[in-house]
Amino acid sequence: MSQNDFSAELLKRAEHVEEILKKYLPKEEGYAKTVIEAMNYSLLAGGKRLRPVMMLESYKLFAGDNADEAVVEPFMAAMEMIHTYSLVHDDLPAMDNDEYRRGRKTTHAVYGAGMATLAGDALLNFAFETAIDGAARGTKLASYDGDTDNRYFAALKILSKKAGIYGMVGGQCADIMAENATDVPKDKMSDILSYIDENKTAALIESSLMIGAILGGASKDSVSAMEKAGSCVGIAFQIQDDILDIVGDQAEIGKPVGSDEKNNKSTYVSLNGMEAASAKVKELSEMAEEILKEQGFEDSFLGNLFDSLIYRRK
Amino acid sequence: MSQNDFSAELLKRAEHVEEILKKYLPKEEGYAKTVIEAMNYSLLAGGKRLRPVMMLESYKLFAGDNADEAVVEPFMAAMEMIHTYSLVHDDLPAMDNDEYRRGRKTTHAVYGAGMATLAGDALLNFAFETAIDGAARGTKLASYDGDTDNRYFAALKILSKKAGIYGMVGGQCADIMAENATDVPKDKMSDILSYIDENKTAALIESSLMIGAILGGASKDSVSAMEKAGSCVGIAFQIQDDILDIVGDQAEIGKPVGSDEKNNKSTYVSLNGMEAASAKVKELSEMAEEILKEQGFEDSFLGNLFDSLIYRRK
């Protein structure tokens, strides 16, 4: 697939996710109207919708001819709500205190910090409402672990676990602590960074691929393989981000080049050097590719998507 | 049951909930240790554990001889986590900015506002992790709506819905908006207040009673009846709180008498007068009692608990 074809296809898929999201958005009415407006403002802030796109793709690859998008749609919407709530809370004055994201005012800049806190809470909660409701209505799926509805429970378990303290929130905590840490020995900092990349960045990618696989009828081994692929892609994505911070063009990546360095923030590059970082990205990229090949998805859109994420220029 | 016997029994039940909570607490280890410490600090701040106590009681009344506490325990823990996260976020500088709760430093006062935001998020997420995991492991329950595992899904749906924009979060939003509203006509403010009481205060009580009933094998009609009972108790509790704010003894209720009035906050009492407020509490209390009677739980501990909540002096 040419770069242009891929970009057009990715855009088409993001628009498809956008349509799905809109189906699940709560109506802006009643006395809770303001928090619902703030939720929808946050959710409809654009973005590439990479996690739902990956989930749907993983689902379709495993489900094959049995694919019924309705099975996975509530989980796609839930995933984007979770990703969005994490951005809303990250941007708060008590966290990163960002007034703008992708050139648009952040939720707290428009609605105030109190309402933005509440909107984030509402999004996280609504993610579970949406996924649970979808699971409860869902058509029966073939058994995963001996029980009838078990695939939905398995998907709900992954959704909740990877978003919490054993996933994204855990990574956010370690990130906050690392920023304030001084005099951490290099090998320990290397451990911490790899924990942060795995959890803050990779966890929701892993979760998206796994949920798609589970609902698509994958075996436990295949679900584990997709988890590993997600981990490789997420970590490579983060290291590439650190590389771009040094060598990238400011206009392209949208933040001042060298901002990590200026913030005195440890990165894979600052700890291991540029050459080792590039080699690591290549290694991880090849591992993800190998996993897709083993699963029989060698020439899939998902492979192109992984590549574009890892080797993006912006 | 005498007042002393009841108080002793309630304390015993709160201690029982405390033991259950401790079983579900995440271990304070790894690079996410700080956020887990903040979660546990928030969860183990004491309190009467009223919601889990009510859930267990509702469960036992409906399950009768078939009662198996393991079925309801994860949901009890999840309910207290949700209640706790809402307190942690309410206390934040961006919300009510409270430094103390029940004589103890609030979570943000100890861990900082960023970490407290994250701990609240982590608690809400962990509530769903805990309940979903419990539902996935749970023994099979008799059908609720035609499907095998449907009672667990029904319980998860109630748990998520009543905590979100169609429940507690909705009430919190309306509460924030009402505080900033000026020149709202009296009948509209009366509507808003009743929405706030129903959602901010009553929703988790309703949810606790309903989940206990659902998992205990109740019919849909009985679950609706328990929802109504929870609504009466929650709203009566709130109006009684407004009454105590005027007539109460400062030391007993723990906040300055007349603080609502001083804050210029509309309450049922300020809108309808003390006499109407007392009459309303009596009416709601009798309705809740009547519902328990209809369900065959006339002389239950739950009836005593409702009374103690509604007619408490502190």
TrEMBL record, chains A, B:
Catalytic activities: isopentenyl diphosphate + (2E)-geranyl diphosphate = (2E,6E)-farnesyl diphosphate + diphosphate
This enzyme's EC code(s): 2.5.1.10
GO BP, sorted A to Z: terpenoid biosynthetic process
Cellular compartments per GO CC: cytoplasm
Keyword Transferase annotated: yes
The protein, known as: Farnesyl diphosphate synthase
Enzyme class of the recorded protein, top EC level: transferase
Recorded GO MF terms: (2E,6E)-farnesyl diphosphate synthase activity; metal ion binding
Xref: InterPro entries: Isoprenoid_synthase_dom_sf (IPR008949), Polyprenyl_synt (IPR000092), Polyprenyl_synt_CS (IPR033749), Prenyl_diphosphate_synthase (IPR053378)
Family designation: Belongs to the FPP/GGPP synthase family.
Entry-linked Gene3D superfamilies: Farnesyl Diphosphate Synthase (1.10.600.10)
Known cofactor(s): Mg(2+)
Species of origin: Butyrivibrio hungatei
Keywords for this protein: Isoprene biosynthesis, Magnesium, Metal-binding, Transferase
Pfam family, one: polyprenyl_synt
